[in-house]
């Protein structure tokens, strides 16, 4: 099933889109040189494409200047950022001139604390203004920001601080999540106390979200607001090479060790700007609301760098979708006349449960483009979002991309590409996906296989921090000549792509990628558990839920499941809590000792017919044992 083209004054027609695609294919160097001109360069690059030295390799620029300074003359008094606090009547609007001044003040505070080009600064904040301001202040100085998701445990934070060599942390006294208070500062204190010999943090700057006091360590911790109030509102910007790192962002991998994905400056910013304008049909006057936390790549690319580099207006919302009552998001859209709404299938499934009548009580006619990100969306959720929220008149962009890609890769383009419910549709101009079989052979036509990408693109990650060998072995060597995404996909007779999920051992919970090895590593620290295996299963709300099979030292221990959950949430975070923990005598393994996750996944899902040839297992009889335990 496909939808007709939506009505509206979109930037591109189908013929425009085909022309861009043809140009990108036939003359990629000229195409990307043209796209590079959307940025303001200190020294314009002489070439665009990555020939081994990175994209726009000899160009120099500053990301903060591209998001702020260059807009001051033409749109200095335009609203750049709307912050809607937990309290409905607390709204802060910053013009480009205001935001520029605040970023300069933050940059001067960081500089006064010894931060300079190449230093790493961790940002561990709830959805407050200082998160965006801190990112842009780092970019202004040439420092590398490391944004940490607020739901991380102290262990997870300590791992990332140690690996990145972070010198300074910006955190908050608390975060507000409805009536709850999230202990940001005490969580950070716990992280810094875990392995002090591996950490290099000299300073901790604390944002006051509320008046609640928190412990402060003399000589290390300072409240941030008084420092900002004294700082100058102007600060020169560091000139950076296009290939200099802009930020590190940690993503879980199948090794259990978080991977610090490194994104450069010129290529990444070009890609964020290009995809934001193209996919969301960005136009003057748009109010862009991406609900992602800035701790994830979606928040980097489509809360901060994409919209601001394009001179847009972004909305930040501190509160929850249904607090203090249902309909909070719809009220925000109505109040601020949001035109573009970009969220996750998990959030959509939760909002669907409130029924159809509630959103219809609000005026949502300002909406022009709806988008989804983070995981494949079901046809039911797609249709509900389209019909009930968009009224069937909005463009719908179901986007596929990853932390490593820097921005959107496959997506409808409003007015130019017909939508199909639950399909990511077609690659953007300049993106070249291929489907491969298990032997690495390219599959043609309507088929299903491993999703890889040919060639490079400006937003592609530069490397993994301190481990380029891992970058090569993870993404470039599995299928030589192709970039391996880790996802599987189906391509239909129209050339449209349908993402079928991970083909490696990463579990996608509400758009959060969690390595199974990361969960198993947490359980290895629990003495009562000898061995474990974590797998992902379909979940109506989260997309995927986590199921753990655990082998116990003493199966009669009365609290094994509770101990397992506690170990995972303590080391990984609350968002990684498993749906179910099964205590089992052994795990199904090959004769070489490899866990057979395919079998465990099928058993957990109740798909026990047609399990295939079990003769390759070291102990085939364990399969029947697991089935009896799972079925109760």
UniProtKB/TrEMBL annotation:
Coiled coil: none annotated. Residues 518-594 form the AMP-binding enzyme C-terminal domain. The keyword Transit peptide does not apply. Keywords: Acetylation, ATP-binding, Ligase, Nucleotide-binding. It is an enzyme of class 6 (ligase). Pfam families: ACAS_N (PF16177), AMP-binding (PF00501), AMP-binding_C (PF13193). Gene3D superfamilies: 3.30.300.30, N-terminal domain of ligase-like (3.40.50.12780). This is Acetate--CoA ligase. PROSITE patterns: AMP_BINDING (PS00455). It comes from Gluconobacter thailandicus NBRC 3257. Signal peptide: none annotated. PANTHER family: ACETYL-COENZYME A SYNTHETASE, ACETYL-COENZYME A SYNTHETASE 1. Residues 17-67 form the Acetyl-coenzyme A synthetase N-terminal domain.
């Amino acid at each position: 099933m496909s939808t007709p083209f939506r009505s509206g004054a979109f930037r591109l027609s189908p013929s425009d889109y085909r022309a861009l695609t043809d140009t990108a294919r036939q003359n990629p160097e000229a195409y990307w040189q043209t796209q590079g001109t959307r940025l303001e360069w200190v020294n314009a690059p002489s070439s665009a494409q990555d020939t081994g030295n990175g994209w726009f390799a000899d160009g120099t620029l500053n990301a903060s200047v591209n998001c702020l300074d260059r807009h001051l003359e033409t749109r200095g008094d335009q609203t750049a950022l709307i912050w809607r606090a937990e309290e409905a009547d607390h709204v802060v609007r910053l013009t480009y001139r205001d935001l520029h001044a605040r970023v300069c003040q933050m940059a001067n505070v960081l500089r006064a604390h010894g931060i300079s080009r190449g230093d790493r600064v961790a940002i561990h904040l709830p959805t407050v203004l200082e998160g965006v301001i801190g990112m842009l202040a780092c970019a202004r100085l040439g420092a590398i920001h490391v944004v940490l998701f607020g739901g991380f445990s102290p262990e997870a934070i300590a791992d990332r601080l140690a690996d990145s060599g972070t010198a300074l942390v910006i955190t908050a006294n608390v975060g507000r999540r409805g009536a709850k208070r999230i202990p940001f500062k005490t969580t950070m204190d716990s992280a810094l106390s875990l392995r002090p010999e591996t950490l290099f943090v000299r300073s901790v700057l604390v944002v006051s979200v509320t008046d609640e006091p928190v412990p402060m360590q003399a000589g290390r911790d300072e409240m941030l607001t008084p420092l900002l109030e004294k700082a100058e509102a102007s600060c020169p910007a560091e000139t950076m090479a296009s290939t200099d790192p802009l930020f590190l962002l940690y993503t879980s991998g199948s090794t259990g060790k978080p991977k610090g994905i490194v994104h450069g400056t010129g290529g990444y910013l070009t890609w964020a700007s290009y995809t934001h304008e193209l996919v969301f049909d960005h136009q003057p006057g748009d109010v862009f609301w991406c609900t992602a936390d800035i701790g994830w790549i979606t928040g980097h690319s489509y809360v901060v760098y994409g919209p601001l580099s394009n001179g847009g207006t972004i909305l930040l919302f501190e509160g929850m979708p249904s607090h203090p009552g249902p309909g909070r998001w719809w009220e925000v859209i109505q109040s601020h006349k949001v035109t573009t709404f970009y969220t996750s299938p998990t959030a959509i499934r939760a909002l669907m449960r409130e029924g159809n009548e509630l959103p219809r009580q609000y005026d949502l006619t300002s909406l022009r483009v709806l988008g989804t990100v983070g995981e494949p969306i079901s046809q039911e959720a797609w249709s509900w979002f389209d019909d009930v929220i968009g009224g069937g008149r909005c463009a719908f962009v179901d986007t596929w991309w990853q932390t490593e890609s820097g921005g959107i890769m496959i997506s409808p383009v409003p007015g130019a590409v017909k939508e199909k419910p639950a399909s990511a549709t077609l690659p953007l101009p300049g993106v070249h996906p291929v489907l491969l079989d298990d032997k690495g052979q390219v599959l043609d036509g309507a088929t299903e296989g491993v999703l890889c990408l040919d060639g490079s693109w400006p937003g592609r990650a530069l490397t993994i921090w301190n481990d380029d060998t891992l970058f090569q072995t993870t993404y470039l060597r599995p299928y030589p000549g192709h970039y391996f995404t880790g996802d599987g996909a189906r391509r239909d007779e129209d050339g449209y792509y349908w993402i079928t999920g991970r083909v490696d051992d990463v579990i996608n919970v509400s758009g959060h990628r969690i390595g199974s090895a990361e969960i198993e590593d947490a359980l290895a620290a629990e003495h009562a558990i000898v061995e474990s295996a974590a797998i992902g299963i379909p979940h109506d709300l989260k997309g995927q839920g986590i199921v753990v099979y655990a082998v116990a030292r003493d199966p009669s221990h009365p609290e094994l499941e509770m101990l397992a959950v506690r170990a995972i949430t303590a080391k990984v975070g609350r968002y990684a809590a498993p749906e179910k923990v099964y205590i089992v005598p052994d795990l199904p393994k090959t004769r070489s000792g490899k866990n057979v996750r395919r079998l465990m996944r099928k058993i957990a899902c109740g798909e026990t017919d047609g399990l295939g040839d079990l003769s390759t297992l070291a102990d085939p009889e364990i399969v029947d044992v697991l089935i009896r335990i799972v079925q109760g």
